[in-house]
Amino acid sequence: MNIIIFGPPGAGKGTQSNFLKEDLKMTQISTGDLLRNELKKESELSKQIRNIIESGKLVSDKIIYDLIEDKISNKNIENMMIFDGFPRNIEQAKNLEIMLKKHNQHLSKVLNLKVDYSVLIKRISGRVSCPVCKNTFNEYFDPPPQKCRENKLIKRSDDNEGTVKKRLEIYDKETLPLLEYYKNQNKVLNIDAMKQIDEVRKEIRGVLKG
Ligand code: AMP
Q1: Whose CA is nearest to atom 23 of ligand 1?
Q2: pLDDT in tens, the chain (210 residues)
Q3: What's the start-to-end Cα distance of the chain, in Å?
Q4: By the 8 A CB rule, do 143 and 134 touch?
Q5: Residue 156 annotated as catalytic
Q6: SS3 letters for 131-170?
Q7: I need a labelling partner for 198 at 20 to 30 A (CA). Which of 43, 142, 160, 204 fits?
Q8: Atom of ligand 1 nearest to the CA of 87
Q9: What are the domain boundaries of the chain?
Q10: CATH ID of 3-116+175-209, from 1.20.1630.10, 3.30.1490.20, 3.40.50.300, 2.60.40.10
């Protein structure tokens, strides 16, 4: 089974993908994480993408396809992939289909994490992660324990209020239309992502079993 975890920034896609890794032994493919890994290198690519990511805009489709195809072609994770943060527009969705077909796979379902926009800014601007245990916390809703605070907590450079507004704007304009596209293919499973993290986890497990 290959699935897309879909929703606006701050909906909990990364958190729930981590649970799916544990619960169903799936592999998360987060284009955001792949790009942030590139930023740690002094590569030509990192120079090209740094400003784009920090302004909240989308990087070019071509850059994304190279990162994604490298994963889709990996036999070890065949039919066990969770796409997180990809596709982000219709063009990318069509290309995903082509890449999956080329590697004899297909897309099973799209998990649509539904959240009220009013909570997203707080969810994103409060987000921090611990470099040691790798868990993500939220300063408002799920504060990190003291032992994690003693490590230098990591805050993403694009998790500030200004950039978040831009990211939400782009989500509405370019990414949200994908929902109709996948509804027409009968692939969308709606999830109430306003609930507590564990409740959302249970709901996802339930719908995927169904
Ligand atoms: P994310 O971690 O998914 O919120 O992504 C962080 C940033 O990486 C986004 O705001 C974009 O600048 C870039 N990005 C991630 N995934 C994609 C994608 N599929 N297409 C274009 N840009 C992306």
Answers
A1: 58
A2: 999 999 999 999 999 999 999 999 999 999 999 999 999 998 999 999 999 999 999 999 999 999 999 999 999 999 999 999 999 999 999 999 999 999 999 999 999 999 998 889 889 999 999 999 999 999 998 899 999 999 999 999 999 888 988 999 999 999 999 999 999 999 999 999 999 999 999 999 999 987
A3: 13
A4: no
A5: yes
A6: CCCCCEEECCCECCCHHHHCCCCECCCCCCHHHHHHHHHH
A7: 160
A8: 19
A9: 3-116+175-209
A10: 3.40.50.300
Residue 167 annotated among the catalytic residues of the structure:
yes
Cα(88) to ligand 1 centroid in Å equals 8
Q: What is the pTM of this model?
A: 0.93
127 is catalytic: yes
Active site residue 201: no
Q: How far apart are CA 55 and CA 186, in angstroms?
A: 34
